[in-house]
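Journal club prep, notes for RB
We'll compare a predicted complex against what the paper describes. Inputs for the zinc ion case:
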Amino acid sequence: MNNFIFENSTKVFFGKGCVKEYLSCLSSKYGERVLLAYGGGSIKKNGIYEEVMNILEKAGKTVIEFSGIMANPTYAKVQEGARIARKNYADWILGIGGGSVMDCCKAVSLAAVSQKDIWNEYWAKPGIIDFEPLPLGVIVTVAGTGSECNGGAVITNEALKIKTGRDYPKCNPKFALMDPEYTYTVPVKQMVSGSFDILSHIMETYFSEPNENNVSDDISEALMKNVIQNLRAAVKDPEDYTARSNLMWDAAMAENRIIKLGKKCDFECHQMEHQLGAFTDCNHGCGLAVLHPVYYRHIYKYGLSKFARFAKNVWGIQPDGKSEEQLAEAGVNALADFIKEIGLPSSFHELGLPEDINLKEIADSCNLVPGSYKKMSHEEILEIFRECM
Ligand code: NZQ
Ligand code: ZN
C-alpha cells in the first residue's frame, strides 16, 4: 500500500429520526444566526423544511434563508450565498440537500470569511486555507456524492466553462445528519443516478494501483456488491428502509476517504464528466453512466487482472473456460447491462445532448490525471466521447 495520513473530522448521526433527536443540541454549539441553505424546493414539498424550521425556532435561532441552489452549483451562486451570509452576520451554515447544496455551502463557508476571490485562490488551483471557514452542518436528503463526509466541493465557473472539485479538510462538515427516510421522496431517476455516482466513486478508486493485496480493494468489492443489490431493491420499493439506509451509508463510505487510503485513484471518468457538465449542465450520475463502460473498454487491457477480478468478485461471472481477457470484458459488459437494467442512459443521445455538440472543445478542456491504467490524451477522450454519442 502507498503511504497515507488519515483524518475525518465530520461527526455522523445516522438513522431514522436523527434530525429530531440531535439537531437542537447540535445547533446550540455554533451560534444564534444560521444560514439555512437548500435547493429548488423539494424540502418544502416533503416536510423536511417544516421539521427543521420547527426545531430551529424552538431552539431560538435566527434563520436566514439561502435557497435555489441548483444542480451543478455555480460560482455565482456561491458568491450570492456569501453576500447573504455576510450581510446577515451568519454564525454558521446548515445545508439541507444533496451534493449540490453541500458543495455550494462548503464554498460559501470560505467565501463568507475570505477577502480573496475564492475561485482564483482555491478552485482554479489548490490553495492553502489558513483561516477558519464558517462552521457547516449538513442534513443529507439524497444518497450519492458522499459530500457529507469530506471537504470536497465541485463548483462550476460558467464564464470559464470549468467544473472542478477540490477537497479541503477544513471544509468537512462539522456534523452530518443522515436519515434514510428523508430519501424516500427522491425521484427514481435521481436515485439511480446518485447510486451510480456511488458505484463510480468506488470503481474510480478500485481500478488504480496498487493492485496487489490491499484492504481498500477488498472493502471496495463489498461496497460495490452492496450498492448493486440495494439499488435493485430500492428501485422495486422506494420505501425499503434497509435498501435506502445501505445506499446512504455506501455513499459516505465511498467518499469519506477510507477506501482511497493507500490507493493512487483514477477519477479520469469524473474529469470527463465534469467538463461535460460544465458545457451542458448534464446530470452528474447519468453522465458517468454513459462514460464508464466506454472508458473501460479503452483501458481494461492495461489492467486485465483487476478487471477480471471485478468480473468474478463483483458480478459473479464464472471464469471457467474464459481467458483473462474474455473474463475482463465480460465484467465491463455486465456493468453496461446493469446501467440499462436500472434505466440509466447509455449514450449521449439518451442523455439528451444535442447532435451538434462540439465534442472536441469539451475533450480538449478535460484534465488528464495520472492514476488511470492508461494515461489518457485529449485525442483519446475525443474518441471516447464520439463512441458515447
Ligand atoms: O433542488 P431540490 O428541489 O432540493 O431537488 C433536488 C435536485 O433536483 C433533488 N432532491 C434531493 N433530495 C430530494 C430531492 N427530491 C426529492 N426528495 C428529496 N429528498 O435531487 C436533485 C439533485 O440533487 P443534487 O444535489 O444536484 O444531486 P447530487 O447529490 O447527485 O449532487 C450532484 C453534484 O455534486 C457534485 C456533482 O458534480 C454535482 O455538481 N459532486 C460532488 C462530490 C463531492 N463533493 O464529493 C463528488 C461527486 O463526484 C460529484 O462531482
Ligand atoms: Zn461523482
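Talking point for the session: Residues 55 and 300 are 51 Å apart (CA to CA).
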